[in-house]
Batch of 3 targets.
Target 1
Amino acid sequence: MLKLKDIVKVYIAGETKVTALKKISINFRKNEFVSILGPSGCGKTTLLNIIGGLDRYTSGDLLINDVSTKKYNNENWDSYRNHSIGFVFQSYNLIPHQTVLGNVELALTLSGVSRNERKNRAIKALEQVGLSDQINKLPNQLSGGQMQRVAIARAIVNNPDIILADEPTGALDTETSIQVMEILKGIAKDRLVIMVTHNPDLANKYSTRIIKLLDGEIIDDSNPYDGSDNTFGAFEKVAKAKKTSMSFLTAISLSLKNLLTKKGRTFLTAFAGSIGIIGIALILSLSNGFQRYISKIEEDTLSTYPITIEETSLDLSSFMNYNKKEDKIKDKDPNKIYSDNIMTSLLQNYLRGIKKNDLVSLKKYLDNNEELKQYVSSIKYNYNANINIYKSDYSEYATQLVPYKIPKYMATILGPSYTQIEMMMQSSVVWEEMLDNQELIDSQYDLLKGVWPTNYDEVVLVVNEDNELSDYILYALGLRQESELQELLKNINNPDYVDKVTEYSLDELLGLTYKLVVDSSYYELQEDGFWASKKDDQEYLKKLLDKALDIKIVGIIRPKENVKATSISGAIGYTKQLTEYIVNENSKSDVIVAQKSLYETEQKSIFDGSKIDDNQYKMIMSELGDADLSQPSSISIYPNSFESKDKIIKIINDYNSDKSSADKIQYTDYIGLMMSSVTTIINAITYILVAFVAISLVVSSIMIGIITYISVLERTKEIGVLRSIGASRKDVSRVFNAETLIIGFVAGTLGILITILLCIPANLIINHYTGIGNVAKLPAVGGIILVFISMGLTLFAGLIPSSIASKKDPVLALRSE
């Protein structure tokens, strides 16, 4: 039962008070057709809005099933309107961007009804009003009578207890008015219909009860009801109804359909919002590209310039820490000349700076450090393991190729330059151990033919980017003969002489074999009990080569295009397994075992039996090729980035932290600060540019906020309709937040797509002027984040307009045009 008890409604405008309703008391039956008549301004619509929960009474009480609504909060009133009230307005108040079916379904979405049931109930309601064949049309495609019937279908779809009709025929012709009244009359058979009208003829013809108002008071009630009959116990749903709530998908759907009705403005708004995103995305694309380019250069460069820790190191800071003033005599005789002992000081500082590093302990520490593995591309342990390479064909002469020796007869031709050239040639690396990181090597080299070496007796041949090998390398590999060198020297001063260019097929080079001799195998025990070197004994060498290890070229590689630095500086790359093989072969040789034993017992040399000191012993053992895999002569650590290099240095410093000054490790960082600040500079430039471009994002966000506010003004009546069917303030706010999110998503996505397109000409321009290809490339994660940033900014910009929308008075909103 619905009961109004002494309802008073006072409107306050400044200091003026207007009493619209004066102690109105009415009891309504469960099902009847009530018409409220009266002149304009008598309070009819106000009374209807109070009954419908759109407006609040000033005093008195509205009782639902004898339960007071004085303590109803906003959620209670929303639920009441959604479950128990259906509004029919004079101006229809259909949402223009929703179809007929969408308009009718709207109230059900707030009730949590499933999609299929929602559609079925909406179609059934439209069938009741005779519009089942119009469900997909928009309101502007219907006549006035059809639109009013849609409004009635929307009012009854949620099976409410009360239908409130405010001048439902006011905008219709006579024939259509009769059709609408017949529908309302039919509805009133099983529920309460309250209609406000100016037309007494319609009221007398269709109503079961007429209440007349004048100046806010009831002056007549044709069929009053005292509420004593207990059979009128309606509105049970109000107390039991759950909280109404619009799903976010519904809010998205409403806003999307609204935006699609203004495609041009929506696109321009989104495009304006995307400008800032485009700017930031382009900066990120370039920054990311250059960072990747620099990272690659760093990785390649660091594969050439590792952090090196020698067994014996020199502290250059100590060496250079010479202060001449400390040695000056304060009171000098001006008639005398004094010595300035610079050399003495420098030598003293040099000797103080020489330090022996404990590489055995450091190797154990590095091998067991799990953290280190993520920062290094490779760690190379270097040993006293000389590579002695001979031609595989030694039938006539055992020719040593590595180390390569310039023939003595060249001294007569080259004169004083011979020594310098010999030193230069001997210092040139021909055979070199590769880094133990196949992924890094694959990123630096193309395999032209063959396979990568996997065993200690397999190597690769390295050509330059132009598929060339220097003539020096050709001599060192035995591909060019000494006779050719003699011919060159004969004609060295002939300006018309041109050395021939030789060509080799990949198949000719692939499969070449060489003989490897370890240092210790050069020595033979003599009859007198001492050992002697047989390096220059051809007969001995030939026998030695008979059982020497065969080394085979199994692959030919070339530096990749655009690689700025490579890890193999020699022409032959071999695996660390070969180094380990050489160390192991030497360590078990008879000559090394004999020298160790003799020195431990008598401190004598195995070559002549003479007494030797510690330094002499070390020199002999080095000549014999003695080494221990647990005791490297130096350690080369290859960081995978400059940031990692700093981490590695920290790990070494952590190792030093609990060591005494004498036991601390000293190391050489060859690359040093050469490029360490490049990344920082690029990051700083990126941040500055992003900060400037972000201003456009702020401006576009403000613009979107303004446009959202305009949308609020344009959709004010829609806000009133939503509130009338039970939408809460949060629901209304959600609708406009959804609109800003859609705009933000479109702006962000549009910005990313435009950026991707702009990267194409940007890359062409950069490649044309710098030769660096494919620099501008937006990272996928960055693009996604920028879309979310765009959505977040537009959502933030729309908070104030959406808040204004949610606070709009539904009564005033319904009156807006």
Target 2
Amino acid sequence: MITIKRILMDYETVQSGIGQMPQFSWELASSERNVKQEAYRLQIAEDEAFETLVFDSGVVASEESAHIAPEGVRLASLTRYFVRVQVKAGGEESGYSETASFLTAILEPDQWKAEFISAETEADAENSKGTYLRKEFQVEKTVKNAYVCVTALGLYNLYLNGKKVGGDEMTPGWTSYHKHLCYQTYEITDLLKNGQNAVGAMLGAGWYKGLMGFLHERNNYGKQTALLAQILIRYEDGTEEVLATDASWKGADSPVLFAEIYDGEIYDARKEIAGWCEAGLDDASWRGVEIVPYKKEVLTAQGAGKPAEMTKLPAQSIFTTPQGDQVIDFGQNLTGWIHVKAAGKTGDVIRLDCFETLDAAGNVYLDNLRGAKESFTYTFGKDGEIEYHPSFTFMGFRYAKIVAFPGEPQTENFTAYAVHSNMRETGTFETSMPELNQLWHNILWGMKGNFLDIPTDCPQRDERLGWTGDAQIFCRTASYLMNTYTFYSKWLKDVAADQTPEGGVPHVVPDLLTPKASIVNDWLLSQGSHSAAAWADVAVINPWTMYLTFGDTKILEEQYGSMKAWIDFMKTHAVDYIWNYKLQFGDWVALDAEEGSYFGATPNDLTCTAYFAYSTGLFVKIAKVLEREADAKEYQELYEKIVKKFQATFFDAEGKMTAQTQTAHIVALYFGLTPEEYKETTVQGLLRLLEKENGHLVTGFVGTPYFCHALSQNGCVKEAYELLLKDDFPSWLYQVKKGATTVWEHWDGLKPDGTMWSPDMNSFNHYAYGAIGEWLFRVAAGLETSEEQPGYKHTVIYPRIGGGLTSVKAEYDSAYGPVGSFWRTEGDLVTLTVKVPVNATAEICLDGAKEVLDADGLDFVVKEGCMSAETGSGVYTIRWKR
């Protein structure tokens, strides 16, 4: 029997406020094997009974169950549409699926009636207080449905009749505000009431006007916070009413005396105004608002992926340090905030200072926060019990120092919440080795801690910027862990928006460095605030990774101009196809750097030119996918010239690399830049360099993500596992042995003797080195998507057995359904169970198979030195001897 388990809309189960027709995918289920879809019928309606259809595909003879894009449909703004699908597969017809729905946003720019309004003036540029905004309105007829579209310059929380609208946090997030600003859409039908209503908002400085960046500059985008909100009410009699922010609203200072991203929040409940967002308040003393001019053309609807409280973590213990500080331990390094429940009297104060780790003596360690305070303070406004958490900041922490608290604090007074962009977890991974499982946990929590609206480097110190290099090297791992499509699609719009006119890509996105460079920092201007190899290549590598993961060409189309501009920038600034440009980070924080330096020993000419070739090669593939044949031909010729120059420059006549570093050999091998006749020499050279370090890596940001791949792709699976499973410094498992719950910025952030790396740059939640996660999935578990049929339409399942592990189990929740691999060993006997979703196929390869004992109905043949079989959907268990 064929059934439809779910419908996805742009890879999400929920879309609330989208600006265009989504693409549709559906997951099928069947107890039979080798089931493929033969036909489908997709319907979209304005009502749940599907009596008012706006689209009916009819019966379409097609195997496609993903990336279905209905054409010729004119959607209406602020309208909920209902979706269902029926399929024929395996000779059977399904019933209609359960109904999914999506809500549109404002689809036509001229439908915006609202203006940005502010309770601040430009005289408030130097403060980071919070403000209230409010407006009362009358509802006199029966409401059919109602919606609000809302955003802010700064951060906002919206309330209607005393209740918060939606469950999102830190909205509207951080974008290149003058070029791209997201707005959110919520249904508010159930929050309205007959008679008098009140809408209110609290605003905070956020990324928009608060202190941000290396230069500690304020007002990076503007000098006053502002709200844009537009409510549409539809009545049962067919009439409509629009309520929009305008000069008639009123404003006041809120109890938030101070709130910034780095330094936390100060909240004085004595300044609360009871009923401020409810009808009937006497607001005669409230002040008028200012209209803030702003281009509405940059507004973009955001239907999913908004930050929220995602995971609840109760306090594990409260203890006293040797220095006498009371400290709360939540047992996990995380990003978010703390909910506090307490009883006190008017004027009593709660203050918590958040931090990541204890020093060697077990005391509070704040030095690595640099200038960030990570503190929040609450002052009681009345006698009694309260519950409070910050709203316009976030902290990176495991611990919190109790600076002030009324009474004796207990663990039940404190609950941490991890706050990050709402992404469905898609990947699971488990092995027979607890330390490796903890590493996977750390990688996942490193992602949770640094995917709060943008991909940050770290969540605790006075930085928290969208470093492009970190985002690039972690992208494939991130896309196994969670559904990243919405997250990266949004952020890549800012990558494109912030590119220089020549096509250069900033070091951080949103770009806080380039706009200030010419004004504040002559050194930064001269050295370059954009276009570092591996960092800027995010413009090409991340869209390609999205394509591999989801099989989606839309993101390639959207980012094509950005990708091409970046390749052209490198071409323009290359000298005889050797690319280098101003400030380069190179193999950042590699251990082969000179004493006191963060720059690894691999020459910039080599790493830059390697990435020039790699990104150009990927761009050729993308041009072919999009059938841009002229571009494919032009850039293929460019690619060949770069590779030829790389090989002539960085290999000597005997086939040895001119740079004797691990990273040089790794990128030459993984990027396919090694002459075929020199490949074995290069592999042996890498093994010698590894042996020179007693089997340890000394790589940084450029070499580390690909180290195990460079080994396993070249016949050195044993050495790749040995490298992975090292547990002394430097290694991934060294951090695990030291009690890490996230991935560190430095291999020795906490040194074997208990001392710390220099506090100026020593984050204990820095996901970049967690890029090893993709090797665990792609090689150890053996789940690899196909370039020819991406998005797990076809999967190559080829787990590599090794490392002394007796089992590895992994599963990825693709658009077609779960793809899984579970292998276990008993001596030389291997048992592999694979899962292939309906309407998909796989190639199963048996590592080191000498004799297949149970093929479970599959036909295994020798292919490229490995026993392999092609199969369709189903669950299969194969046993073989190695």
Target 3
Amino acid sequence: MISFNPRTLIKVLVFVVLSLFPSLGMMAVEVKDFTFMHIGIDEGMVNQRVYSIVQTNDGAVWWTTKAGVDRANGNSVKNYSVVTDAIYSGAAGKVVKIAQTEEAKKADGKQTTDNLYIFDNNGHIFKYNTIQDRFDLLTSIVEIVNHELVLNDMFVQKDCIWLAMNDGVYKLVDGKVEPVLNNVYANCFIKTDKHLLFCTKEGIFNEKGIVLKGENVLCGYYDYIYNKVWLGTFGDGIKIADPSCKNIIHALGDATPHNPIRSIHPYGKNLMLIGIDGFGVYQASRKNPNGANLLFDANEGVHGVLHGNGIYALLVDSWDNIVIGSYSGGIDIARPAGSTTAIFQHIRNNKESLLNDHVNCVAQYTSDMLLMGTDDGVSIFNSATSQWKHVGQGMVVLDICKANDGKLLAATYGKGVCEIGVDGSARELYSVKNGTLKDDHVYKLMYDKEGNLWMACLDGALVEKTADGFKYYDIKYVNALAQLSDGQIAVGSATGLYFVNPKTGKVTEIKYAVKGLNDINRYVFDLYSLNSNALWIATDGGGAYVYNPKTKDCVQISTENGLPSNSVSSITKDKTGRMWLATDNGIAFVHPDKPTEVVDVNYCYGLRREYTRGAVCNLANGDVMYGSVAGAVIINPKNIQRLNYVAKLNILRVSCGANDSEEFKEEVYEMLKEGELHLSYNQRTFELFFESINLRNQFDIAYQYKMGEEKWSQLSDVEYIRFENLEAGTHKLLLRCVSKTSGTVLDEKELTVTIAQPWWNSWWMQLLYFLLVALAFYGAWRVYDLHNKYMRLVVRSVNENDNAESSLAETLEPANEQSEEEEESESIEDDAVKDFVDKATKIVLNNITDTEFTIDDLCSEMAMSRTLFYVKLKSYTGKSPQDFVRIIRLERATALLRNGKSVTDVAEMVGFDNPKYFSTVFKKYFGVSPSKYQ
């Protein structure tokens, strides 16, 4: 989770699990049953002092700190402040907690966001406002009772709020505080099936009075399965009472340190987790709580996986992750080891970790001892003691091979073959120097069925060491070796596949080919001989091939079949018979009888990584260990199947800017519930926020959207979409969350977005335009009519005049002069129009790369109002300002496209910050896409 810039999300501390993931019904769990992640300041927290944790029904995890409230959705951490008027004095010793609610008790601890309350120890009570996405101050107890107090706990019921305070227990009803139990220091509430228990320094009370004296209880949990009440005391450990809390039926005594117990939470049906201030997390049996043992802490040693020992809050979320909040270490999350049972990585300046993250080979020496060859020697991990040893530092180890006599041989890059010991010893065994190798860059080692050792070199002959001496085969650049069922040795190299017959010394090149395909990749990375009819071949760029040596038939497996990548690093078979193909972009499996039906399993935690060539090992317990460029990983194949998780997509809110009003947010909230969004024309630039939460598989979730008939966008981790200058009208938006691994659509939402017409395109403006046009036609008709009347008067006057010609000449002369004046006036008017249009065009061109350049900016530079500019531009060009600007941008784009610029560059150069939107507008205007226009 986590401040996750998606992209750097969580710090993963790595611990090992070499056994199958135990079910939650087992009596105890161990550190090795989990992998761990940490959330702190670097991941988005403002303060690492955690007081309480809760999960809401949308899957998000909330916690309170000294600074306020944080919400984590698996992709980011959002911070909420709960500041009161007492900014300075209120911060002293401030404690912020999440209130218990009766609703959450009925829903197995999960609360709805509509009923999320928090409080501070100064008596301020806040409630989460879902619509405004903030915490609003509900009331201040201090102002009601008019004296200082300490509020330690809250329990919210439908008709009242119970308050545990330093001077008693109270009820808040209709804005009034009513005393229930006076003169006690109340710590917390415990809700059982019949009573609400008040835990105080003086003992435990219920609504009727005291039930158990002398127990200073800080926290508790009612176990409805076994009908017991667990009590965490201040200094007397854990005690367990009957449902009425009148009798203590178990006391763990010295099983836990006698420090304050701050949190108690069940883990599965049989375990109870206990958070102890200063000592970490302990576990005990729910059914038979006769003792407890340490599970996690922040000290050196096998249990030291946390970032703080002062445990104040525990939560088990919907995916069985244990969320741990401490007084100084922020949030630690223990994830049950299911598909990924261990991850080994290098920790800087820590010898109890992997030597180097570039793991070239892996092997198992004994059931408890794992070997990892790296770019800086061999790291040996003992799972029984959780201790590391390191051998041959300074050597690049490419392969490790265990001889029949138990000796370990290491193939090195530049130092030949060395013999190494689990005690840390290392010595040179075979090299160019002693005449046994032709090249000291050894890539692969293998013992065949006869006990002969094969050594493959980069730029030297393949070597076979037998009891009689050394044999050499002219095959170089070898990456893989495998023995076939008939005894031949399959050799995979950068130049192809070869079969070597050890008895005859014959080398045969195998030109495997797929029927109907001419493009065959023969750069072999790894080999796996399944049986006499199937040799599996991993290649660098061609995927994998399944070759039948008898029939010469060959089948290709590639990304077209679902492989994560065509660069296949290694191939192995698990105990269930499935074939596992590791690539430079994750892992997939297939069934041997259906090799082209690939199942990509990168949705599993930690599996999407670049795996190294041939670095795979089947462990004795059925797990499979891999080497990668980012450490080593162990998977449990039995727990990995096809995509098997769900994630609901939620549209959260819409923002048009920092000044969104409360009324706007309320309107949007109601509209989104109906799957609609209506915005004004001025709100056509907005951001849409959404999320899909599955804290177990969050890294596999991505998002896509499309508007109308457009194509789906690229997959993205970003949980919002920004729309800029969306055109007026109704748009159909489809939004979906998708598995990155398989492309499976997990959930999809449809939203109808309506952008209102601008005021100048409204119905009343249309009516006004019509009236203006009608008025113009009427005016023109009136002028024409008056002109006709005038001409008739002139003709009549001429006929009545005896000197018709001279009078007519006198009459026409000024008329001609007027005509010349009119022509001059028209010429001046044409020049004005040209100057206006030229000036507007020049301004647009000067700002063509500015995506923020608006019509208002253009009007400002033209020194006129928006209305006057619109009327003039429309009358001169017939275009609206938006169309005018858009046409100039698009015409400029055509010239740039003809000059060979890319579509993305052109979009940016003409003021579009979204190449996809640019392509849509371009095609709409010119009838062809920008790419085809080129």
